Amino acid sequence: MPVLTLAAPNGKILLVTGGSRGIGASICRKAADTGWTVVINYVANDDAATRLTDEIRRSGGAAMMVKADAGTEEGIGAIFSAVDETFGRLDGFVNNAGVVDFPQRVEDYSWARLQRMFAINVIGATYAAGQAVRRMSTAHGGHGGAIVNISSAAAQIGSPNQYVDYAASKGAIDTLTIGLAKEVATEGIRVNGVRPGIIDTDIHASGGLPHRASESADIIPMRRAGRADEVADAVMFLLSDQASYITGAILNVSGGR
Ligand code: NAP
């Protein structure tokens, strides 16, 4: 449900799932800086979402935060209802909410682990993309827009002995990007993806590896982890008119990994 609201008149509306921390927060900051009104979705950490919303507003930007689980039908319904009721339009959607889990081999995965991972990373992301299409597609009376799906370099690496399930979930996101881009190509919507490599955010601690980014230099050709703002720059490009002839593309932002 929306907690704080401040809409910029005539602004384009961008929804970012998982927008309150890490890569999503960086996307929200950059989008607000360039005139988008940002809808910041998050699921649990009220303080982080409030801090980011306040920060954007203090900088002269427009932001609204929406607390809802992007891994459930009800949560996604609440997110898009908040957008509909507050703005009545949607111009951009960044499918960013995603989770990892603790390192395990495939034969040790529990059913519950897989259900959580795929509910958020795949089912939620696919359903949310569909909700965005319903609002933006010219076939539904919308005025077009852009979708950026956040995948991972893991989709191409496979992440053995760490989280093959996560890698597989991001492989599904890549296929979603390719198929959906073609499906809505004549309806004013561009759909692209970004595959971040190892980026310095809290996600690694949530998977039990708090030092993963700082200890990863040896396995990255550029010999350093990436920053959230470096991923956000790629996302902003794909959302922008500068990418007007780009759809179905998936851009690696991974330091060469
Ligand atoms: P992060 O630092 O862990 O931040 C996660 C964000 O997502 C938070 O805003 C969190 O909200 C929100 N979130 C988590 N589960 C959610 C749910 N069920 N519904 C709504 N919001 C939810 O993550 P990150 O590193 O920025 O990752 C963002 C995306 O990039 C993910 O899709 C991830 O797979 C992908 N990625 C990351 C890396 C990397 O190295 N960091 C690499 C490749 C791909 P709360 O604050 O309320 O918890």
What does this entry look like structurally?
- It is a single chain.
- By secondary structure, the chain is α/β, with parallel strands linked by helices.
- It has a single domain (13-253), classed as NAD(P)-binding Rossmann-like Domain (Rossmann fold, 3-Layer(aba) Sandwich).
- It is built from eight helices and seven strands.
- The chain has a seven-stranded parallel β-sheet, with helices on both faces.
- Strand 1 (13-16), helix 1 (22-33) and strand 2 form a beta-alpha-beta unit.
- Helix 1 packs across helix 8 (228-239), helix 3 runs parallel beside helix 4 (111-136) and helix 4 packs parallel to helix 6 (164-183).
- NADP nicotinamide-adenine-dinucleotide phosphate binds at residues 17-18, 20-24, 41-45, 48, 69-71, 96-99, 120, 150, 152, 196, 198-199, 201-203, 206.
SSE arrangement:
Blueprint: E1 13-16, H1 22-33, E2 37-42, H2 46-58, E3 62-67, H3 73-86, E4 92-95, H4 111-136, E5 145-150, H5 154-157, H6 164-183, E6 189-196, H7 203-206, H8 228-239, E7 250-253
Parallel strand pairs: 1-2, 1-4, 2-3, 4-5, 5-6, 6-7
Helix pairs in contact: 1-8, 3-4, 4-6
The structure holds NADP nicotinamide-adenine-dinucleotide phosphate.
Task: Write a concise synopsis of the structure shown.
It contains 8 helices and 7 strands, in the order βαβαβαβαβααβααβ. With 257 residues, the chain is of the alpha/beta class.
